[in-house]
Specification:
By secondary structure, the chain is an alpha+beta fold. Among the domains are: 65 residues, wza like domain (wza like fold); 91 residues, Outer membrane lipoprotein wza domain like (Outer membrane lipoprotein wza fold like). The chain contains seven helices and ten strands. The strands form three sheets. Strands 7-6-10-8-9 form a five-stranded mixed β-sheet, covered by helices on one side. A hairpin with an 8-residue loop joins β1 and β2.
Length: 260
């Protein structure tokens, strides 16, 4: 009777067998993925395109954040306190009235509660009035006319030739405003000119302008357009601030430098 013998493979044979299995599995996986891409070539293209769009959008968003915000020009007039509005109701003339904007921005209306109109344009005021009168009228038709208003102005103060209040008749930039105010004094620190602009809810927006850089480089791209009610302030330079505290004996050195 033959006796069967089992031989235990050596450790080296085990390592070779495992390596062969791993290589064969990797080969099958690679062939399968290549075949899938060959059957659906649009998948990889779509993936690449999607990544490209993400990168482009990311770059565009960054560029948008770096670009300065363009200022609004040719804006519609916004209602201020003390403005006078004439309201006419073509189909219900008994509601015709002339109202004055109060200091708090509200107007008193006939037949309905008052509404706040300060800061609104005429089309916006018309829509607000229609909403208010819908409570007593069916589909009201209202015409709004600005009868009297505060003339647009700006103020220039500080180290300029003639500080004061000026009419804002046309589009005017900060440098043009300084020129209208008599130009800069020798004591002006025109590298840090401040432009103050009032925004709704009682806030004031401040912007620093480097007019020295603008004039030196002959580049007015950073020049700002003024809006009604803006205040432009030109501060003193450092030398002008400390000149008030120089001792009298020091002044003689400038008057008689030969004495040194």
């Amino acid at each position: 009777m033959a006796v069967e013998r089992w031989f235990e493979p050596s450790e080296e044979a085990k390592v070779i067998w495992k390596s062969s299995c791993l290589v064969f599995s990797f080969f099958l996986t690679s062939v399968g993925s290549i075949g899938a891409q060959a059957q659906d070539p649009g998948a990889s293209a779509a993936t690449g395109t999607s990544q490209g769009v993400v990168r482009a959008n990311g770059a565009g968003a960054g560029d948008h954040e770096r670009n300065p915000t363009l200022q609004h020009r040719n804006r519609r007039y916004q209602i201020h306190s003390a403005d006078v509005l004439e309201l006419s109701f073509p189909f219900t003339p008994e509601f015709n009235q002339t109202v004055t904007v109060q200091p708090d921005g509200y107007i008193t209306l006939r037949g309905v509660d008052g509404i706040r109109v300060e800061g609104q344009t005429l089309p916006e005021v018309t829509n607000s009035l229609r909403t208010a009168y819908k409570t007593v009228l069916h589909d009201p038709v209202i015409n709004v006319e600005l009868k009297d208003f505060e003339r647009p102005y700006f103020i220039v103060g500080g180290e300029v030739g003639h500080p004061g209040k000026f009419d804002l008749r046309n589009e005017t930039t900060a440098t043009e405003a300084v020129a209208l105010a008599g130009g800069l004094r020798d004591s002006a620190k025109h590298s840090q000119v401040l432009l103050f602009h009032r925004v709704p809810d009682g806030w004031v927006q401040a912007k620093k302008l480097d007019m020295k850089k603008m004039m030196k480089q002959a580049d007015l791209n950073e020049d700002a357009y003024l809006q009604p009610g803006d205040f432009l302030y030109v501060p003193k330079n450092t030398l002008s601030k400390i000149a008030r505290f120089l001792p009298t004996s020091s002044l003689g050195l400038y008057a008689n430098p030969a004495g040194l």
